[in-house]
């Protein structure tokens, strides 16, 4: 691909760079090194830093087998001008949608070293490349550790655990030569029809922000990157991607500026200000008619101007092209062609185009035509160079393949993934069925389309170990209990996330399967019924032929028939829901003796389920997103405005299961709520305390949640908003005092004049075990 005009044979080449050039001196401050390097760069070299190679790395850097080919590199534009990033080296030699054929840890580390050596030793300026990878719930590569999807991590309400998991992912990634993770997703998910709910931390901006800050700190450590174990985090998708029109991925987002700031931008603001996130990814969607990749107000005025962001903005894959037109998905048609799309994106402040050179190769031409100033490119290239210096890539760019192989999926990381999966499981209902007692079982029927299926969700790698529910139950019970399995029915045929076409199973064949499953269940002492969705029924809809958003939240296919037939037997039955989005399951809520929401739990799914079902661990997860009664009840998020839930004719307007809800095998008493002082100035702090006692006979965890309500305000405010939480582990009979500090940032919002302020007046403080009114205790705070 010819990205730049070739020189004539008589043109003078750029001067050689002296070995003692200031930018090569690690003792000099990073800003000085950046200035010196920028001053030496040609226009083409600057533009090259704003480009990435992903699928086009084959034929430019690597051969068809995924091996670095120096001859290809020397013949390409990168030999003359360098390159900003290489995308997903883990999938070199594949189509990009065949994760099982990707590079092993050792192979990826060796490939990264070979590519990096070329750029440092064979390009004029010796500027290293950044390698980026997907790390949504672990590095998405062969052999890497796969932990629960973010929606499941949010169920833990455990920021320390989230930080540890992303630090683990960073360590595995950096050992392979990776420098940037395209994670965490900070979208606030307010429409469960949207197929990307699994990638989010749920519906509440405070929870998303808290866990987002933890994820960034896990990825980036102390921000110095001196230990070679951390990577740059990328906040995505900025902004408001989680409430698209109609629940369809990439759809327009119709919100006011106030709603945008208080709900959707809040997690990004917190992750930038409190965790120093190095990178942000702009979102596919438009807000008020302006696509995010062309939104100067969003990416310059707010992100950089108001928040002081000093990192760099990456485009979402092909999103700059979509400012013009991308027929396989959509076009915004705010640009006439690729060239104008590049102009709009640069003006908006997008530093680099991902995943392949498409529109940004026109930047040099735009400068020569006077439509862009070269200084505008300088301002976008400078922060990317700065992070390459801060990562130490000019001095220490290589990794140890032995260490990469040792870390990949190691026992320590596997144990942490199992702990996370166990903490994430949410007990929604239990009519004295759980925990199961193996001593009282002779046979156990494990039934359902998700009972013996690898279910990791989107953006997953290929872990060394992948334990299904059936695998985990059999491992836990051994030879003591006969475990009989039946699929019961299928959700889809095949069902891989990467398969574009979704094929429904034949209903008659499924009914025959259901009959077989009932026969299996009839002979068992107890039944574990594993239902839900799969990686095709909820996923990123990235094109017109690869869809994943839905108009229904009911159980897909014949699963309802299967459930009704099995539950009609009257056996002690435990129903597990696995999948990427909340499903409306009123029948199960009424008729299942026990019901658990599991989401996608990662490679240790089966072990975590067994730990919980047999009482080795007590479930302690809480819902990070409300479960609706039906799709007709949407929106159902708990933090609604006072006029929003007046009621429906012939139906209940509440959620089937509300945000923050989750049961345990033990019981907890929350008592003695107090507030000190009861009156504070607008810049003051109040301390809220409550005593939590485990009143049962088992150890367990309770998530104590604090909500506020501004009783009278200049603009309408939600009926309640989460402003604090703490996961507390207690032994039987143990009491602990949980303390929350309420500061101005917990009480502030954007007022009538769009100022971020605390208004004087009364605030209702609510503390309890879920967002339900009946689960909350109240006390009043007065602000003067």
Q: What topology does this entry show?
A:
Layout: H1 30-40, H2 43-48, E1 52-53, H3 70-75, H4 77-81, E2 85-87, H5 105-122, E3 130-133, H6 150-156, H7 159-175, E4 180-181, H8 205-220, E5 234-238, H9 257-264, H10 266-275, E6 279-282, E7 286-287, E8 290-291, H11 296-306, E9 312-314, H12 319-322, H13 338-348, H14 363-368, H15 374-390, H16 401-407, H17 411-424, E10 426-430, E11 443-447, H18 469-477, E12 482-486, H19 507-522, E13 526-532, H20 559-567, E14 573-578, H21 586-591, E15 594-597, H22 605-613, E16 668-676, E17 679-680, E18 686-694, E19 700-710, E20 721-730, E21 735-742, H23 744-747, E22 749-750, E23 756-757, E24 761-768, E25 776-783
Parallel strand pairs: 1-2, 2-3, 3-4, 5-6, 6-9, 11-12, 11-13, 13-14, 14-15, 17-25
Antiparallel strand pairs: 7-8, 10-15, 16-18, 18-21, 19-20, 19-24, 22-23, 24-25
Please provide a written account of the structure.
By secondary structure, the chain is an alpha/beta fold. It folds into three domains: 378 residues, Glycoside hydrolase, family 3, N-terminal domain (TIM Barrel), CATH 3.20.20.300; 209 residues, 3-Layer(aba) Sandwich (Rossmann fold); 116 residues, Immunoglobulin-like, CATH 2.60.40.10. It is 29% helix and 16% strand. It contains 23 helices and 25 strands. The longest helix is centred in the N-terminal third of the chain and has 18 residues.
């Amino acid at each position: 691909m010819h990205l730049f005009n070739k020189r004539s044979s008589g043109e003078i080449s750029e001067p050689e760079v002296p070995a003692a050039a200031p930018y090569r001196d690690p003792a000099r401050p990073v800003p000085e090194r950046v200035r010196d390097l920028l001053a030496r760069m040609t226009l083409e070299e600057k533009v090259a830093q704003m480009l990435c190679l992903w699928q086009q790395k084959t034929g430019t850097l690597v051969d068809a087998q995924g091996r670095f080919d120096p001859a290809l590199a020397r013949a390409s534009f990168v030999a003359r001008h360098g390159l900003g990033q290489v995308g997903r080296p883990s999938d070199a030699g594949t189509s990009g949608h065949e994760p099982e054929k990707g590079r092993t840890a050792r192979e990826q580390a060796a490939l990264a070293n070979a590519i990096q050596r070329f750029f440092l030793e064979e390009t004029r300026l010796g500027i290293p490349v950044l390698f980026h990878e997907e790390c949504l719930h672990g590095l998405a590569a062969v052999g890497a550790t796969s932990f629960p999807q973010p929606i499941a991590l949010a169920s833990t309400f455990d920021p320390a655990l989230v930080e540890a998991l992303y630090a683990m992912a960073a360590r595995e990634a950096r050992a392979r030569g990776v420098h940037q993770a395209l994670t965490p997703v900070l979208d606030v998910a307010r429409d469960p029809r949207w197929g990307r709910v699994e990638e989010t931390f749920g519906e509440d901006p405070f929870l998303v922000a808290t866990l987002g800050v933890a994820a960034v700190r896990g990825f980036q450590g102390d921000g110095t990157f001196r230990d070679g174990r951390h990577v740059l985090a990328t906040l995505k998708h900025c902004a408001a991607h989680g409430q698209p029109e109609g629940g369809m991925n990439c759809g327009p987002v119709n919100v006011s500026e106030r709603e945008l700031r208080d709900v959707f931008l809040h997690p990004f603001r917190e992750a930038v200000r409190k965790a120093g996130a190095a990178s942000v990814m702009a979102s596919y969607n438009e807000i008020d008619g302006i696509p995010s990749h062309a939104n100067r107000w969003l990416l310059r005025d707010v992100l950089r101007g108001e928040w002081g962001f000093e990192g760099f903005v990456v485009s979402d894959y092909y999103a700059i092209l979509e400012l013009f037109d991308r027929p396989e998905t959509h076009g915004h048609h705010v640009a006439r062609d690729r060239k104008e799309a590049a102009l709009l994106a640069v003006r908006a402040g997008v530093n680099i185009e991902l995943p392949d050179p498409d529109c940004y190769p026109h930047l040099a031409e735009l400068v020569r035509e006077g439509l862009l100033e070269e200084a505008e490119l300088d301002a976008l290239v400078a922060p990317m160079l700065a992070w390459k210096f801060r990562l130490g890539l000019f001095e220490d760019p290589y990794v140890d393949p032995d260490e990469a192989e040792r870390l990949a999926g190691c026992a320590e990381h596997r144990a942490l993934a199992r702990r996370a999966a166990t903490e994430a499981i949410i007990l929604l209902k239990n009519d004295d069925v759980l925990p199961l007692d193996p001593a009282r079982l002779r046979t156990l029927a494990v039934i359902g389309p998700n009972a013996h299926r690898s279910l990791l969700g989107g953006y997953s790698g290929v872990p060394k170990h992948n334990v299904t529910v059936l695998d985990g139950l059999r491992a836990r019970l051994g030879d003591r209990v006969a475990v009989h399995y039946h699929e019961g029915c299928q959700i889809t045929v095949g069902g891989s996330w990467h398969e574009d076409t979704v094929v429904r199973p034949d209903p008659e064949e499924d009914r025959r399967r259901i009959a077989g499953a009932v026969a299996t269940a009839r002979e068992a002492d107890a039944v574990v019924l594993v239902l839900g969705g799969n990686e095709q029924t909820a996923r990123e809809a990235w094109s017109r032929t690869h869809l994943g958003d839905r108009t229904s939240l009911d159980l897909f296919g014949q699963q309802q028939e299967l459930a009704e037939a099995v539950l009609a037997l009257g056996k002690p039955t435990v129903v597990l829901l696995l999948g990427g989005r909340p499903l409306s399951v009123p029948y199960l809520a009424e008729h299942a003796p026990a019901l658990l929401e599991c989401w996608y739990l990662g490679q240790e799914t089966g072990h975590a389920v067994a730990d919980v079902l047999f009482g080795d661990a007590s479930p302690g997860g809480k819902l990070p997103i409300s479960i609706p009664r039906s799709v007709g009840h949407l929106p159902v998020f708990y933090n609604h405005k006072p006029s929003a839930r007046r009621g429906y004719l012939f139906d209940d307007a509440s959620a089937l299961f509300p945000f923050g809800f989750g049961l345990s095998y033990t019981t907890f008493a929350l008592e003695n709520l107090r507030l000190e002082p009861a009156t504070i100035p607008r810049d003051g702090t109040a301390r809220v305390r409550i005593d939590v006692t485990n009143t049962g006979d088992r150890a367990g965890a309770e998530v104590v949640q604090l909500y506020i309500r501004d009783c009278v305000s200049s603009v309408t405010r939600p009926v309640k908003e989460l402003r604090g939480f703490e996961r507390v582990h207690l032994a039987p009979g143990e009491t602990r005092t949980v303390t929350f500090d309420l500061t101005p940032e917990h009480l502030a919002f954007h007022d009538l004049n769009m100022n971020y302020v605390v208004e004087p007046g009364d605030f209702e403080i609510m503390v309890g075990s879920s967002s339900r009114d009946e689960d909350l205790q109240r006390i009043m705070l007065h602000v003067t």
